[in-house]
Amino acid sequence: MNNKINSTQTVDKTKKQKTYLISTWGCQMNEHDSEKMAGMLDGMGYACTDDIQHTDLIIYNTCLVRENAELKVYGNLGELKALKRDRPDLIIAVSGCMMQKKEIRDIIKEKYSFVDIMFGTHNLHKLPQFIANHNQTSKMIIDVWEEGGEIIEGLPVQRKYGFKAFVNIMYGCNNFCSYCIVPYTRGRERSRNPKDIVNEVIKLSKEGYKEITLLGQNVNSYGKTLENKISFAQLLRMIDKIEGIERIRFMTSHPKDLSEELILSMKECTSVCEHLHLPFQAGSNRILEIMNRKYTKEKYLEHVNKLKKEIPNISITTDIIVGFPGETEEDFEDTLDVVRKVGFHSAFTFLYSVREGTPAEKMENQVSDDVKRKRFQMLLDVLHPINYEANKKYEGKVVEVLVEDTSKNNKKVLSGRTRTNKLVHFEGNKDLIGTLVNVEIIKAKTWTLEGKINEK
Ligand code: 5AD
Ligand code: SF4
């Protein structure tokens, strides 16, 4: 969960400016939605705060992908009850993927009746209206659209950073992987018009942004829903031409739609970073089929080989699910085999979590928690030395780092990322935040690199 959204507005205590606090769970799509909500609130004269005790508005922007994220929201909501009792004027809103489920809205209505506003993923642009209506009526407002309508362009955005930005290129997902709730919460796939995307990036570049991350549930199928068809590779080439943008990233790629054309454009576009997040989820062909992933282990490995051949210094990261229904020891061995063969730079690893309403929920032979946990640990034991080995190759090299922040523990230490998305720590002045610097890597760790600024 990430609480912080920087605001251009500072709190003026004499004027009693109203404040908001947004807590965000889940993916980058949600993070960016929160930035849009922050933009609208700034426009309404609110300022951002992290002081939960005194804020006027709390928004929980929720995630439904795994059960633990869902449970945490209930836990946190429970803690707000006393706050609302002491300060009845406080507005509490819940938004995001959880709100797309009627059953969850009913639970909140019943057990957390102090919540003032509930809205979903498709109508967050109505936030100012929800607040105004609530202020007038003091009634609980529930407004959730089942499906996403036309894409709303031009919403104000209050971005967390001044040098790297998220840009949506599409919304929703048509893939219906059998474990996944996202197609039910984010609706059908809809691509943004390329002109709107390019204009947004041009504007960002004029404002001094150096890095953009193009967001979509499956960016590789970008453009398929547009009247004038265009591929993701073509979009990348258009954005690559925009001056001032030094780094282009994108998330997430589905292996079934990874084309040669895309690999080639990644190779040829100088701003596109040498990093690909390519979730493989499971190694066994049998499990991949039941997951409805529409590729095989062999096809995945073929993609990886092509990527490594065309872009030799590429870092490949992934998502892996352990304990999908029916997963045998042999199936799990296939997952370990892929991990060993690819040499992932890092991976998000998940215990399979039953999601109500997905096809996998109904599947028999669910794997027991004990077995899931045992396999999960085995996976980490294989994965971590591989991640370390990948990092070790950086020792002695000089890499370009976009400086992002000071280290949490030591303000004299800066943190930033390489083009390959490695987190690097090194000593330096915080004025360097937002700039590109060359750093010599001194020491590799499993998840981070340590270095020193290379003055040459
Ligand atoms: N259980 C566990 N992990 C899941 N993911 C999506 N749905 C589930 C689930 N039901 C993981 C996938 C996806 C990532 C965003 O979350 O690995 O790529
Ligand atoms: Fe979920 Fe699959 Fe769509 Fe990704 S591609 S959001 S895992 S359904």
Keywords:
single chain; 456 residues; alpha/beta; Transcription Regulator spoIIAA; five-stranded mixed β-barrel; globular; binds 5'-deoxyadenosine; binds iron/sulfur cluster
Description:
With 456 residues, the chain is an alpha/beta fold. The protein folds into 4 domains: 3-143, Rossmann fold (3-Layer(aba) Sandwich); 161-273, Transcription Regulator spoIIAA; 282-392, 2-Layer Sandwich (Transcription Regulator spoIIAA), CATH 3.30.750; 398-453, OB fold (Dihydrolipoamide Acetyltransferase, E2P), CATH 2.40.50.140. Helix content is 33%, strand content 21%. The protein contains 12 helices and 19 strands. It has helices spanning 28-43, 67-86, 102-111, 127-137, 182-185, 194-206, 232-240, 260-268, 285-290, 297-310, 329-342, 369-392, and strands at 19-24, 47-48, 57-62, 91-96, 117-119, 141-143, 164-168, 170-171, 190-191, 211-215, 247-251, 275-277, 315-322, 346-351, 398-406, 413-418, 423-427, 436-444, 448-453. It binds 5'-deoxyadenosine and iron/sulfur cluster (SF4). Iron/sulfur cluster is lined by residues 173, 175-177, 180, 182-183, 217-218, 254.
